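Ticket 4471: requesting a sanity check on a complex prediction with zinc ion. Repro inputs:
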Amino acid sequence: MSAALKTALDGLLALIYPRRAECMGCGTRAGFERDWLCEECRQALAERWVGAAPPPAGGLIDSAAYGFRYGRPASGLVRNLKYRGVARLAEPMGRQMARAFAALQPAHIDWVTPVPMHIRRARQRSLDHAALLAAEVAGRLELPMVRALTRVRNTPQQARLSDDERLKNLEGAFAVSADVAGKRVLLVDDVCTTGATANACAAELLHTAQCSWRING
Ligand SMILES: [Zn+2]
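Returned C-alpha cells:
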C-alpha cells in the first residue's frame, strides 16, 4: 500500500473510530481525556530525568544531554511517536530535550540538525520523528533547524545489532548536504543507545567540515 493511501485510510478510520485519549506512556485509558501521560507515568518520567551527561565514547562529540533514561514510560513515548505516528508527542518530548540541553550550559550553537532517516523508511512511517523533535528543539532554542545530513544508505535497524555490528552497519550511511565548515551543530535523535549513530553523524560532519576548510582556506 502506498504511504499516501495509508495516510488517507488512517485519516478515514480516525473519523469513523475516533481514537480515545490514552496515556502515551503505559496505554491506560482510565481517568483522563486529553492529557498525554497518566499521573503514575508523569511521576515515573520525572524520576528518569537526566539532563547533561557524558557524551558517547569516541571523542567526536563535545557534550551531550538527554531528556530521560530509556525504559517505561519514556519507551512508550518513543514507540508512540515513532511507530504509531503520534506527531503531537514531538512537542512535549522536544520541550524536555531543549530543557536537558539548557542544563548543559552550552557554548554557542549555529544549527540544530536531526539524525536523518532514509527516505524509504520515512515514507513507510509517514513521519520523520527525529526531524519533528529537532524542529521542536530548534524552535525553543530560537535556532535554525538545518537538515545538514542525509542518509544515503538504508541500514538495518540498530536495535537488533551488537556493538560491532552497529559500527559496521553505519559505514557510509550518512552524507553531508550543507556547508558545515566552521559551524557548531547540535544533533538531535530520539534514542541514544551506544552512541554509534551519533558518532557516525559527527564523523561525517567533522570530515566534511575539515575538507571544505582545506578547500576554502
Ligand atoms: Zn501511564
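Notes from triage: The chain has a mean pLDDT of 85. Leaving this open until the requester confirms.
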